[in-house]
Amino acid sequence: MSSRAIPLSVLDLCPVPQGSTPAQALHNALSLARHVEAIGYKRYWVAEHHNMTGIASAATSVVMGYLAGGTQTLRIGSGGIMLPNHAPLQIAEQFGTLESLYPGRIDLGLGRAPGTDQATAQALRHGRGDGSDFPQMLDELRRLFAEPKPGQRLRAVPGAGLAVPIWLLGSSTFSAQLAGQLGLPFAFAGQFSPDYLHAALSAYRDSFQPSAELEKPHAMLGINAYVAESREQAHFLASSHQQAFLNLIRGTPGPMPPPVEDMSELWLPHEKHQVMSTLAGTLIGDEQAVAEQLADLLERTGANELIVSSSIFDQTLRKDSYSRLIKVAAGLQTGV
């Protein structure tokens, strides 16, 4: 059993259930944030995606302000901001504003993928490139957050001189190595890229150089989790996410479907393999089964934190899954 309490956080794409609206999805996010704050979760991150009718968190910094204003102690962050979609000055100003309003509670998680399709990425970036200059953009952003130098003409106001923690996000080894070289915390997208998990964590730890931000590597692992009263119920709840991803790979993304008892009639064998392989980074079952899975995951990865995505159609059952998961984590720490 684990001898330490693993910090748990929430990764929310603000899913829009079928028959609902983006407005209700955002209200659901605040309701969930308040719930997990009350039971001991550490962070609540929202993700930047665009041109997706099933995801309501495109204006990520705006959503963060809504969540921060409705909570008290929870750290609110981006999981992540896709930096190549933005001018670094804009992000420094936005997150400087958030940090000014909610001091000590804001995290800036950065990714380099577009978070959307090719046409939408072009509309967002307006010729700013394909993200290959991400290290240079990151350097510019960090300089904007630093204390201004005498005579410096370009400043982020607010933003300059504010200690907004920067995390690098990744689903492969590129950002892992960059985070290590810069001495920054790293969050790995295990919820959809399980095949690269160990390679990315090894690359991060092997390349790590101590910095003013960190003395030693700090890795947070993204996972999916569906915890319910029974294993059958947990698999039932997870079918909404499976259907949503199936629709995505078919090129027909949309609102999150309600769960189904049997997926076998909905996908072809090769589609099932692709969905299940991509979503292999999932904790699923009743509390006993998830306790075993979680203990094994922590033993294999040595993750410092977990950030959990639970795309569950019913809001009440979604809250219940997060409640059960933190109970499981506490039980591992105490050896119960």
TrEMBL record:
Q: Which domain of life is it from?
A: Bacteria
Q: Provide the Gene Ontology terms for cellular component.
A: cytosol
Signal peptide (from-to): none
Annotated coiled-coil positions are none
Among the GO molecular function terms of this UniProt record, one is:
oxidoreductase activity, acting on paired donors, with incorporation or reduction of molecular oxygen
What SUPFAM superfamilies does the annotation carry?
Bacterial luciferase-like
What positions does the domain Luciferase-like occupy?
17-304
Give the record's family classification: To bacterial alkanal monooxygenase alpha and beta chains.
- Quote the protein name from its UniProt record: Luciferase-like monooxygenase
Species of origin? Halopseudomonas laoshanensis
